[in-house]
Design a protein that fits this description.
By secondary structure, this protein is mainly beta. It has 2 helices and 7 strands. A 4-stranded antiparallel β-sheet has the order 1-2-3-7.
Amino acid sequence: MNPYVKAASALPDHRLLLTFENGDERIFDVTPYLERGVFVRLKNPSLFKLVKVVAGSVEWPGEIDLSYDTLYLGSQAAQHPHAA
């Protein structure tokens, strides 16, 4: 079982910075989803910025959501410029 999302924030270029309950910080690119179903609405930057964590996953107004499994498996470790 993959960890739940603890925190999420919108980044430029339709990416999300995610912090998971195990302490991992990861980047998820939403771009591949922007041509599918309800995700088309997330092309609107104002809506995309309204991302919030609900029950360990992320969602936006209008019943748009992504599961923690999708987010964890489809994301990459965040690169921090000051990491040793």
